[in-house]
Amino acid sequence: MNTVAKKILIKGLVQGVGFRPFIYRLANEFNLCGTVENNNLGVEIFIEGTNQKIEGLIEALPTRIPEASHITSLKIEISKVHGFNSFSIVKSNSISEEVTEVSPDIAVCKDCLADMKLQPNRIDYAFTNCTNCGPRFTIIKDLPYDRFKTTMSVFEMCNECSTEYKNVLNRRFHAQPVACANCGPHYQLYENGNSLNTFDEIIKAATDLLNNGKILAIKGLGGFHIACSPFNNDVVKELRLRKNREGKPLALMFRNIADIKKYLFVSKEEEIILSSWRRPIVLLKIKKSLSHQISLGLDTVGVMLPYMPFHHLLFEKFELPALVLTSGNLSDEPIIIDNNEALRSLSKITDATIIYNREIHNRTDDSVVFVANKKSRIIRRSRGYAPSPIKLELKTEGIFAAGAELVNCFAIGKGEQVILSQHIGDLKNLETLEFYKESVSRFSKLFRFKPAIAVADMHPEYLSTKFADEMGIELIQVQHHHAHIASCMAENNLDEKVLGISFDGTGYGTDGNIWGGEFLICDLSDFERINQFEYIKQPGGDASNHHPWRMLLSYLIHYFGEKFVEENIDLFEGIDKNEIDLISTMIKKNINCPLSSSAGRLFDAVSALLGACRNATYHAEAPMRLEALIDKSDQTIDIYPFEIKNSISFKSTFKNMISDLRLGISSSVISSKFHNTIVELVVSMATKVKKEKGLNKVVLSGGTFQNRIILEKSENRLKNNGFEVFTQSDIPSNDGGIALGQIAIAAKRRELGVLGLKYGI
Ligand code: ZN
Ligand code: ZN
Ligand code: FE
């Protein structure tokens, strides 16, 4: 029989996910000799044997890859026969500057959970993992992925672990974080200066504390959590008070899917996402309330399933079906990852702190998704998702994208990929800005990134823009809503002229005004603003974000005058008359009243009008409460009138909403009709643009498209009217997705040789 040889180069998410042992076992199955190794390009396989057997392996390979792995390219070359007489895994070897993927963290697998009941050295051992599961990005310091380059390096494997690690037929073969009770990390519980060190005692104390209405800090995979019982109104209220988190909904972890279904509505798609190895928080509609304090009147709550061995072990002893599990931070600061810092600062707001002695290197928050039109829509992209790259058909090498400011993620370009950072947060917070800077430098090191071009938002005051400017390399600034649309285009691999509809809270316009209700004809390099929501004064600028009633006042004065406001002052129930007069004066005299075409601010005004939210305690509360007003049994298809002129006027919209309100029509119906109105506007504008310019592709992006009703109805109505519609799914449509759009714009302009292009408007 003729022996032939082939070299296979696989790129993608192939390191740290059990890929080499998988290849080893496959090669043995097909009786092939050769080698497999990790290098900075990916995984390289060299195989020798009969042609038929090699073909067999090549055919089987893609269909049987480990669950968390993902192949982006597979190249096969004919090679020279070396005469190997066995198959082996050879040591990692840095040969190139090009880097492959870093795996996100993977929820503990079923086999490991079973081992925790069977293997003597892993009974109830909370750091059990294997090549198919466990920590990855959170512990990686450098590539190639090897134990000594992770925060596991300080733990020396015991004989048993080492035997498993070296045994190619074992599930822990080359599992870098492999550990057992004899050699791996351990938990500790601190309460009032005393510590508990045995696991049984820790779990017992933790469940007792939780049952007795106490608040715990628990070290998670990417940072600390704060936990308490969700069935105890007083403790949840106390947690809100201590954490200075007045109104924001709190996430829950449930024991299992059956218990989730007792309290929340779960669709098939939602169940798949909840149970996936990524284990994000999924926003679900409430069926039966646990405590009013959890979501404070919203109709959804964020829910996740256990993903660390510790969570599973806790729920074995904890009798309640769910726990509040919110990020362990002080108000807007980044989630805490350091033991000492947790003991120092989180102990001020918790009754006990549970830590473990493995370091978290890369901070990640729990990711958040919701399902719209049966597709996953990511809101916060972090644990389980970052730092998986996004593949473009553009050369992105050397481009650094600084991102936006409020829910910042930055991005780096490698080859034709974009690596989007984990969720960073609001850069106006000093600690978050530090986290941003640290992460930029860590990404640069980890991915061997050498920035050549920086791309940032046009907003001169964004701290991300200032950071990019200070890098001392060529800087280009792109318009916020152009970046939103480009982000959605990049995610959907579009590179042509489209109608981009971008609705969000705020973004700096090319005219210096606040934009956010924008209709753009654009491609990846440039855009033309063809229409917009009518400019309205935004009293106090950003300050009005916290006071939706100010926007209502501004809209009413703009459309109907001050006298109308006086006659309808009951619309401002609960707002101090002096404050109303003060803001009216600001509007009249044009003091600190930037012009705004923001969709977010329009939703704020309507939310205030319906009394859903007159003052907001957190970002986007007013639009969320406006959406939550809608009783899903209301199937009205009615709309309010609006006018498309040089800009879009909502004068008749407000006039009719107020008369509905006066007629005693329910706020559910009014909110529903308002949402329908925005959808109708989207369809009308798309129809108009199609007629005038022949464009049939419509791209929707911006934070307002996190409103499930707006997103689902816009997408469906446009599709039913023959449009090709593109929306975001794996990349946030909020400002967390801006960096992807920024890189796409810079890459396209570089390809066209118009990097410094000034917007033609
Ligand atoms: Zn496992
Ligand atoms: Zn061990
Ligand atoms: Fe935005």
Structural summary, described in words:
The protein is an alpha+beta fold and 761 residues long. It folds into 5 domains: 4-89, Alpha-Beta Plaits (2-Layer Sandwich); 102-185, Alpha-Beta Complex (DHBP synthase), CATH 3.90.870; 187-356, DHBP synthase (Alpha-Beta Complex); 389-478 and 730-755, Nucleotidyltransferase, domain 5, CATH 3.30.420.360; 536-726, Nucleotidyltransferase, domain 5 (2-Layer Sandwich). The protein contains 23 helices and 32 strands. Strands 6, 7, 8, 9, 10, 11, 12, 13, 14, 15, 16 and 17 form a 12-stranded mixed beta sheet that branches. The chain has a 6-stranded mixed beta sheet with strand order 18-21-20-19-22-23, with helices on both faces. Helix 14 packs across helix 23 (738-752) and helix 20 runs antiparallel to helix 21. The chain is globular and about 90 Å long. The structure holds zinc ion (2 copies) and fe (iii) ion. The site of one zinc ion has 7 residues, from helix 3. Fe (iii) ion (FE) is lined by residues 480, 484, 504, 507, 702-703, 735.
Write the layout of secondary structure elements.
Elements: E1 4-13, H1 19-29, E2 33-39, E3 42-49, H2 51-60, E4 70-79, E5 87-89, H3 110-118, H4 159-166, E6 187-191, E7 194-196, H5 199-211, E8 216-219, E9 224-228, H6 233-243, E10 252-254, H7 257-263, E11 264-265, H8 268-275, E12 281-286, H9 292-295, E13 300-304, H10 309-317, E14 322-327, H11 339-345, E15 352-356, E16 368-372, E17 375-380, E18 390-391, E19 399-401, E20 411-414, E21 417-420, H12 430-446, E22 453-457, H13 463-469, E23 474-478, H14 480-491, E24 498-508, E25 514-522, E26 527-532, E27 536-537, H15 548-560, H16 562-567, H17 577-589, E28 595-596, H18 599-609, H19 621-628, E29 643-644, E30 648-649, H20 651-662, H21 667-693, E31 697-701, H22 708-720, E32 724-726, H23 738-752
Parallel strand pairs: 2-5, 8-15, 10-13, 12-16, 19-22, 22-23, 24-31, 31-32
Antiparallel strand pairs: 1-3, 1-4, 2-3, 6-7, 6-15, 8-9, 9-14, 10-14, 11-12, 12-13, 16-17, 18-21, 19-20, 20-21, 24-25, 25-26, 27-28, 29-30
Helix pairs in contact: 14-23, 15-17, 15-18, 18-19, 20-21, 21-22
Bound molecules: zinc ion (2 copies) and fe (iii) ion.
